[in-house]
Amino acid sequence: MANLVLVRHGESTSNLANVFTGWLDVPLSPTGEAEAHTVAEKLRGYHFDAAYSSDLIRAERTLDIIVARPAWATIPVHHAGALRERMYGDLQGLNKAETALKYGQAQIDSWRRSYAVPPPGGESLQQTQARAVKYFEAEIAPKLRAGQDILVVSHGNTLRGLRMYLEHLTPEEVESLEIVTGGICVYAFDARLKIMERRLL
């Protein structure tokens, strides 16, 4: 049996400012730094053979804090553009509340929560999922099938897409899937990558 641990990065400065972030490369806020340390504490006792993160600094920093613990200090770490947050296009850097006043909350909800509708100039969740799953199948799944335990630190929408794929969620079900900053989801798989157990920490 192999474990896959999915972690959303800690709060970023853009999360704090309530702006659409996407591929903007912003750091963790002080709260985000604390959330990353809390994740590391919650994962105390877990074994990892390898760790992966997005190549954006908020995910990299969260992973750095986690693997700074002596038990994980020597595991291989990989940073991948395929695990980046959804690209929010024309909305990147805009305040969410102000944008909702301009376009209407229903339109904002469609861009943010739907599976197939992209924001202007950006990626839909479906497109984000496609690149993340392609990377997962090529780089991570073979290790899980071999019985290795893997840690992945990424972003809210990227993890929504991966969880939709792993749990066979429908587009309607994924609309309501919320993943908080510092959120942890642990899967236990058999050799065929059938989920034996899922826990939220």
From TrEMBL:
Region forming the signal peptide: none
Keywords: Gluconeogenesis, Glycolysis, Isomerase
Annotated catalytic residues: 9, 85
EC top class, as a word: isomerase
EC number, as in UniProt: 5.4.2.11
One Pfam family linked to the record: His_Phos_1
Site (described: Transition state stabilizer): 155
Any GO MF annotation of the entry: phosphoglycerate mutase activity
Catalytic activity: (2R)-2-phosphoglycerate = (2R)-3-phosphoglycerate
Highest taxon of source: Bacteria
Binding-site positions, substrate: 8-15, 21-22, 58, 85-88, 96, 112-113, 156-157
Biological pathway: Carbohydrate degradation; glycolysis; pyruvate from D-glyceraldehyde 3-phosphate: step 3/5
HAMAP family named among the record's database cross-references: PGAM_GpmA
Family: Belongs to the phosphoglycerate mutase family. BPG-dependent PGAM subfamily.
General function of this protein: Catalyzes the interconversion of 2-phosphoglycerate and 3-phosphoglycerate.
Protein name per Swiss-Prot or TrEMBL: 2,3-bisphosphoglycerate-dependent phosphoglycerate mutase
Organism: Hymenobacter artigasi
Organism taxonomic ancestry: Bacteria, Pseudomonadati, Bacteroidota, Cytophagia, Cytophagales
Gene designation: gpmA
